[in-house]
Design a protein that fits this description.
- The protein has 176 residues and is α+β, with helices and mostly antiparallel strands.
- The chain has five helices and eight strands.
- The protein has two domains: 93 residues, no CATH class; 68 residues, PH-domain like (Roll).
- The strands form two sheets. A four-stranded antiparallel β-sheet has the order 1-2-3-4, with helices on one face. A four-stranded mixed β-sheet has the order 7-6-5-8, with helices on one face.
- A hairpin with a 5-residue loop joins β3 and β4.
- The longest helix is centred in the N-terminal third of the chain and has 27 residues.
- The chain starts with a helix and ends with a strand.
């Protein structure tokens, strides 16, 4: 195998390692200060169904490529193509599982930033300010590479949870 054949494997491995940080949040985001409610399955039903369909889709391709790799022995070494396709399908299946896990992470404030819905982590240094749109809805104004759509919004189940988050956020971010 030459360097041209190895480079896609290395790239896929690096992407997988970058996504695996979701399993070790303390290492990258600091200790947990306060945690909000966990999203219910009903709230994420469309999201979950879409990802399950994608897992089935890539799993079928994975099985097909494994069968081809096992049955088709080629003197011209074209099995490397199947090996790459197998690795690519494994990458997508693992990546989808990671996104499902991220989608069910609760809103939480950690030492270095805040987790909002869908497991998105925003560092405190990237948050300019925050304001309350209503008693239970918090809006964060932050730096983003592509400023598309509204600012990040966090919805709380009750006013007490919102007040707990507000008291900790005041230490790290200015309020409008």
């Amino acid at each position: 195998m030459d360097i041209i054949m190895i480079s896609p494997y290395v790239f896929i491995l690096i992407l997988l390692l970058l996504n695996l940080k979701i399993f070790f949040p303390e290492t990258f985001t600091g200790r947990l200060l306060i945690e909000g409610r966990k999203p219910k399955v009903r709230e994420k039903l469309g999201f979950t169904i879409m990802y399950i369909i994608m897992i089935v889709f890539f799993s079928v391709f994975l099985i097909v490529y494994i069968m081809r790799y096992i049955t088709e022995k080629n003197p011209y070494n074209e099995n490397d193509v199947y090996l790459f396709q197998i690795l690519l399908c494994v990458f997508w299946v693992i990546n989808i599982f990671i996104h499902i896990i991220r989608g069910f992470k609760p809103v939480a404030i950690r030492e270095k930033g805040i987790f909002i819905e869908n497991g998105i982590f925003i560092k405190f240094k990237k948050i300019y300010s925050y304001k309350w749109k209503s008693q239970n809805v918090l809006e964060l104004d932050s730096k983003r590479v592509f400023k598309l759509g509204d600012d990040y919004q966090i919805k709380f189940k009750d006013e007490e949870e919102a007040l707990n988050f507000d008291s900790i956020l005041q230490k790290y971010v200015k309020k409008i």
